[in-house]
Each structure stands twice: as C-alpha cells, then as structure tokens.
User: Fold this.
Amino acid sequence: MKYFKYIPIDIVNGPGTRCTLFVTGCPHHCPHCYNQATWSFTGGYEFTEEQADRIISDLTDRRIRRRGLSLSGGEPMHPVNAPALLQLVRRVRAESPESDIWIWTGYYMNELEGVQQELAMLADVVIDGRFEIEKKDVRNLWWRGSSNQTINVNKKYLKKLVSGLDIPDEIRVY
Assistant:
C-alpha cells in the first residue's frame, strides 16, 4: 500500500484532534473530487511498519491527545489498500483502544466484501458513497461532501462515539 500524506495533528478530518492518513489509489474518479492528487496507485510513499509505529505513537502520545484516526484517500477500501489498513486498525484497537476510527470510502457499505467488510466492522464510523457535485452542500452536511453519502456508525462503538459529540440525525447504525 502507498499513502499520499500523513497528518499527525489534524482538526479537519473528523471530530476532535486526530491523526489522518490519506492513502493513494482510487478507481472512482469522482468529478470535482477535492483530492484528485491521491487517485494514482503508483504515487506517494510506501506504507511501512515504521509509519504504522509512528501512527500508534502519535495516537498514544499524552502530550497532544488525539481522539482518533481518520482514513481517507484515495480509496481506503480498495483491495490494494484494505489489507494493510486492516492490520493498522487492528493495532490501533489493541494498542490505543480509546481511539475512534473513521473511514471515508467511495464504495457503498453493501458493496464491501471480505477484507473490506472486516475493516468496516472495526471502524467506529464509515462514511460511504461517491462524491456527487450536484449534491454538494457544505453548510448542512456533517463530515461528508454530498448528500448521497451516508454516515454509518458501528453499533459496537456508538456509546463511545456519542460521548461528548453532537451526532446529527441523519446517521445509519450498522
């Protein structure tokens, strides 16, 4: 797997202060995507064990507390990316269990199979659906670019997630 960028202290991509990893490679090529630089599967940097160690270290750093990890792209759920992210997410669950995990994907939940489903089941939130410029609404949408995208909250983690966060009405629990 390759990644485009890692942001160790991020306040934009999810609630609270977070670590955010943008993977490379996206088959969807949504018109007007804000992150077209991540589309290529050959660009970016190799995701190494050292990079995974850094993410865990940042998530467990008590000087700068992070609420969780955000995975975006590119396409985190693509079969090229999902296996490595599944390993990372398993480590986060084991070594930083208080961290929440958010994933943005252009796939819909009902399209996920195998490793993709495993990854989704370990996430607190999966925001699914391709970006559609005609449905863009930056004023009224929480954590998504267009109204066709759904905020899917994992029922296993709902209680932890809701603590201290104003959750919008338009979520779906899975």
About this structure: The mean pLDDT is 92. The first strand starts at residue 2 and ends at 10.
